Please model this.
Amino acid sequence: MKLVFYFLMLALTYSCASPGAGPKGQIYSNTKIGIYATGEKSTNEGTACTHSILGLFAFGDSSIHTIKEKSGIKEVTDVNWQAKNFLGLYASLCVIIGGKS
Model:
């Protein structure tokens, strides 16, 4: 009975690192989702990712503040998410921002 419970919990909690938007694949997913855009052209782009292993360990800093500092962006013109998942064993969420320096 415990084994059934563990498999049920695993099946219900896979892909926990995803922000919850966009389609999810049972085996693999790789989606890019537009979150914000001003319509202006961006001259710079920066990316940062957060990763999850087995839904037990999560690490990374994908904050817009960190991306702006690392890429030299002063004014943000667009924000996108890229979410990847493989069997719930590994998941990542990357924040991609475009802007002007």
The chain has two helices and five strands. The first strand starts at residue 28 and ends at 37. Helices lie at 2-13, 64-71.
